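User: Show me an example of a complex going from sequences to structure tokens.

Assistant: Sure. Here are the input components:
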Amino acid sequence: MDNRTLNIGLIGVGRIGKVHAEHLAYRIPRARLAAVSDVNLEAAAALGAKLGVGRVEADHRALLADPALDAVVICSPTDLHAPMIEESAAAGKHIFCEKPVARTLGEIDRSLDAVARAGVKLQIGFNRRFDANFARVRRAISSGEIGEPHLLHIVSRDPGPPPIEYVRVSGGMFLDMTIHDFDMARFLIGEEVEEVFAAGAVRVDPAIGAAGDLDTALVTLKFAGGALGVIDNSRRAVYGYDQRVEVLGSAGGAAVANNHPNTAVISDAASVHRDLPLNFFMDRYLDSFLTEMAAFVDAVLDGAPIPVTGEDGRAAVALGIAARRSHDENRPVRLDEIKA
Amino acid sequence: MDNRTLNIGLIGVGRIGKVHAEHLAYRIPRARLAAVSDVNLEAAAALGAKLGVGRVEADHRALLADPALDAVVICSPTDLHAPMIEESAAAGKHIFCEKPVARTLGEIDRSLDAVARAGVKLQIGFNRRFDANFARVRRAISSGEIGEPHLLHIVSRDPGPPPIEYVRVSGGMFLDMTIHDFDMARFLIGEEVEEVFAAGAVRVDPAIGAAGDLDTALVTLKFAGGALGVIDNSRRAVYGYDQRVEVLGSAGGAAVANNHPNTAVISDAASVHRDLPLNFFMDRYLDSFLTEMAAFVDAVLDGAPIPVTGEDGRAAVALGIAARRSHDENRPVRLDEIKA
Amino acid sequence: MDNRTLNIGLIGVGRIGKVHAEHLAYRIPRARLAAVSDVNLEAAAALGAKLGVGRVEADHRALLADPALDAVVICSPTDLHAPMIEESAAAGKHIFCEKPVARTLGEIDRSLDAVARAGVKLQIGFNRRFDANFARVRRAISSGEIGEPHLLHIVSRDPGPPPIEYVRVSGGMFLDMTIHDFDMARFLIGEEVEEVFAAGAVRVDPAIGAAGDLDTALVTLKFAGGALGVIDNSRRAVYGYDQRVEVLGSAGGAAVANNHPNTAVISDAASVHRDLPLNFFMDRYLDSFLTEMAAFVDAVLDGAPIPVTGEDGRAAVALGIAARRSHDENRPVRLDEIKA
Amino acid sequence: MDNRTLNIGLIGVGRIGKVHAEHLAYRIPRARLAAVSDVNLEAAAALGAKLGVGRVEADHRALLADPALDAVVICSPTDLHAPMIEESAAAGKHIFCEKPVARTLGEIDRSLDAVARAGVKLQIGFNRRFDANFARVRRAISSGEIGEPHLLHIVSRDPGPPPIEYVRVSGGMFLDMTIHDFDMARFLIGEEVEEVFAAGAVRVDPAIGAAGDLDTALVTLKFAGGALGVIDNSRRAVYGYDQRVEVLGSAGGAAVANNHPNTAVISDAASVHRDLPLNFFMDRYLDSFLTEMAAFVDAVLDGAPIPVTGEDGRAAVALGIAARRSHDENRPVRLDEIKA
């Protein structure tokens, strides 16, 4: 591996895999998408042809065995993340893996051990950290612009719930949806969360409750440094994808609004109005997917620290588990109660 | 008493008393400010002279004994509210009383009993209900415009903490400051709160902690109908008085921004900026003080229901007590645990 | 006249007269409303009774003859302004007069001469200068905050046209409506306008055109110092009263938005919207009427300069006349072409 | 030419040429960038290598002679646009050409004649029509959402003036900068402009005046259907690239705000502020360059009407010429005065 180009194999050509593949092929000059694999070989071949990728495989192990590849991007289903991380590390490949790493801390710890032993780099796909809005809020905190953080509020609401079949296998709202917000909370404040209290409800669809899950929640966070936070989740905001954060600090506050498809404001005889916010996570966060991948490529090539580590991936899962326990037992749960 | 003019005596001519007096004298056509009293007779006399009030007394009992007065407005220190309500009720006067009614449920219950026995009307001074912003959000809920409420967020932050001497006798942040937000939560959602969980911190000034109080808090609320809410309090937002609410409902969301002294936006080489929000509660809420008093006068003269009842006053105090217990014991507290 | 209280007689108790009377009676401590007159004596008496005014007259000359009065506030119909200024000046009264002073420069010059000879003070009721939004923009310019002015844009649109009977006697849109904006332009930039070019149209109602007037216009202004400006007028903005200005300066820009009845933003499945701006000039500009009158009282009592002079009143009328000529002749018109 | 892929040769690999080339190579699936040319062969070769383009030439005529190419994209200097359009048309290529077509109507008419004779398609690069903000305003008008247009306001201000050497050869502000706004005016209102009045000034830099040009202008437009408009230009808005439009219609208004790099609002002890708008036209309008080119490819392949025609290119130049004449002669100029 020279330090000018990272040769990458991508595993799994589903929705997010396609996005990463296109970015790697065309929009990240220091990356070369050298191979793709998918158990659906036809899908892999189609993508490979479209993007001019030299190698297409059904079995990801063919990629891991290829000495020409420096790194892999894992976009397989969640339950394959941890074993693939282990295999990739064993093969000496640097790894970008979609979130969540796994749904149990045991699996995560095993894969992180493998990464550590192999001495490879691992980045977890918490793309929202790379969103221009949230990055600006982080900068407001890390630069001291708004002083010490006192209060954090994260609003994270989907435009509508996923299919009930998905809900049943999702691992629950806290691990499926709130996990992004747990990572965002740690990212923004720059501290660990020591205790959570989760209040949950079924307000959107009784079928979600019947499946043992929640669709509405408020999760209170106590940070190690003394700040407090709350995450506000709903599976359905009829006006669209609602993704905002707000921080109060000792020297000021920072808040971000939603992104809209345009800035036009229409005033008529009834109201002053504008079009709804971007409704689909791929529209809302497209830039951040490009930025995170470019950051991964740069970090590996330049030997720089990885911006979202495996430990970050683990911490978010631990918070999800703690939140569910807090809700089930209706009490605050300390993170040091959560063991692998 | 005819139904065209309400003859009113005002007790206590401190800051808020002066505001009510001026409104009654000049800006509420159906009210007549007929008498004022204050233990500081000089202050009462000065105000009376300025506003052309016929009767000025040091002792409020002189007002209660005056058969020409239909109603009293109680603006005395908090610990006198409950006994004065009892005396005024016994004298057959309708009553407008500043919040909080008292700091213990026992005192409140005694005064509400007196009001009930006397058959007079009692309105509590939760003026924020009459603010145009919050009233619009309430209307969005009560009219069905945004459907069933799912999530409520109240931001209520002071520009700076009160003097530490005041903190020591204030009854604590939950009864002194959050009490407004407890009332706002009940008002907006139109339901009782069944359980609270309060996370508190000392982030603004260690002296507040040394005095046994908090200056930063997140209070989670569970409403009887299943909605969830959170109140976000700080004793110091350096950018000014921060008073906002936001509700997510099944059919939409409603949110209010702060009030600013003007709408001007200045763009220079450094940023796009505007002047800070109104910094002082009297500027921010002045209109609501006028509106609440006009509503009281109308309700008494027209025999209409009082918009903010004694029971509302009691419920907010019960929530404050529950929140403090929740914080002290670090557990959710049900409201039915809170007894007089 | 002592320097603590200004004794005022108010002439004309129509809509704007009532507003000024109430402010003088109750809300301007240094003013005393000592007398009111109206040819409709019944209306004058009703207002006098309501506000506790000692003297009520049908004939304004009774007020002018009253040595107890220091000043008069002239709220009569426009065609009486100039003669009443002359009479009041001759009687030695300080004068606050509603705009416009008159519709011809000849009348204005005669009345300003009378004022000058008598040595009394005269303030013209260009209340918008005292609006918090516009005052903030003026401050951005006068303080140097945005540098030297380059471009000015004034949007001034009514929610709907006046009755066609009014249009016929109004003096035309430039003298009836744009006159406020001409004053605003001079006030904001702090310079005289040397040339105007008026493009007008009939877009709202053909009846307005049939009456010889316009309902839509763009008036380009060239200021003495080199800045350019444009006034954008319409007799009907269906979304309400639209009153905004924007200035580009060498060091920045300043812009004001409309005032709304509340800050609530509602998001539903169709749009993100808020209530329409304040629709009625009395709601939009109420505070400015109070502030301008308090400024008049202070200026007279303290011997300070009058904030809106008779010359300001004259200049706005000259601009209106120039704009009409520009439109009629479809050419730029210099202000030095406009003679009395 | 099949109707699935358009084989394109790109002429001129300067700043805008590179943007178009990258879009054609990677982001427009129905286009294939088959060749590039530039008199600077080295630059052409570097771009060709980066994008994997098969053919690289110094002389654009080699592209025109290549039967495998269906269309050309002309990104050469302005004075070469018209002759290259003629040559390309003669070679039977469809043409996308950057604006302006030329600086004289004679040249434009000759090139449009050539296009007509050859029966090829020609699109002019007025990319702003494809910007999401302006497109939304156009939709508000064309759909009838805001009724008949009455007043248009276009704000178009650069963050800073170009180098004075550029100013000298630019053709003047009206042809170099305002030309975009003339096209925007015609696009938004959907009508021709019949008369202009241009007020110009030198406010930003005396050197611009010394070069015979302006840096500040207000151009009044009278549309064929009776609407009025004004374009507000400055060569320097210190807060960044200011690109806004606003339309008042009979049934409502539509206005767009600037685009900012993020939505974060920071509140500190001094102000409530946000980061400056996007400062560089390439950041501000990047999406529109992609969208216009995709629209060209679609129109050619599908035999659909071209969205921005050669006549549109001509009309904008005619308006620029009329505006300059209006300014020089200080009078309104009718478009029918402007002859080739």
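The lines above are the inputs; the final block is the predicted structure for all four components together. The two ends of chain A are 36 Å apart (CA to CA).
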